[in-house]
Specification:
It is a single chain. The protein is of the alpha/beta class and 158 residues long. The protein has a single domain, classed as Flavodoxin domain (Rossmann fold), CATH 3.40.50.360. The protein is 42% helix and 27% strand. It has 6 helices and 8 strands. Strands 1, 2, 3, 4, 5 and 6 form a 6-stranded mixed β-sheet that branches. The chain has a two-stranded antiparallel sheet with strand order 7-8. Helix 1 links the parallel strand 1 and strand 2. Helix 1 crosses helix 6. The protein is globular and about 45 Å long.
């Protein structure tokens, strides 16, 4: 079985989570940043992105729209990275990030947590995020347990 993990990332956390997930998968896998293209011929396709200002990256929507027919014929897993911890908000982000038919079709979904690394931000965004987060300390909340559960589901035989 071949698995493709596609993602979009703002500051690198989604890529980090995609790599953590890939390490735990037993199938042949490839990880692709959506900014670099989409190889075909995979049994399973995992799509991930991060939430910034309440929205997933536009390139994720473009990828889904451009490949909708193919995606609906594959095993699809969906994940998001964000710092939000309130379940109702997470559900809202999932609903606004992925179309209903793809959410219904997906065999697994996950929230992998997030990070806020101030040194990766430009000065204006850093200033705003310090006010929003009410801290000037980096935040690291990647949920490896959620990544483990996601990988276990993908690793189950068809």
């Amino acid at each position: 079985m071949k698995t493709l993990i596609v993602f979009a990332t703002g500051k690198g956390t989604t890529e980090k989570c995609a790599n953590l997930l890939a390490e735990k998968l037993t199938a042949t896998k490839e990880i692709v940043n959506l900014k670099k293209g989409f190889p075909a011929d995979y049994d399973t396709i995992v799509i991930g992105g991060s939430i910034h200002a309440g929205k997933i990256q536009g390139i994720v929507h473009k990828f889904i729209d451009s490949n909708r027919e193919t995606l609906m014929k594959k095993r699809v897993g969906l994940f998001l990275c964000c710092l939000e911890e309130v379940e109702a908000e997470l559900d809202k982000y999932f609903t606004t990030s992925f179309p209903q038919d793809l959410r219904d079709h997906a065999f697994t979904k996950g929230f992998f947590g997030g990070e806020l690394v101030f040194s990766s931000l430009n000065p204006l965004i850093r200033f705003m995020m310090k006010k929003i987060a009410k801290t000037d300390q980096d935040i690291h909340r990647i949920h490896e347990d959620a990544i483990d559960r996601f990988a276990e589901i993908i690793n189950q035989p068809l």
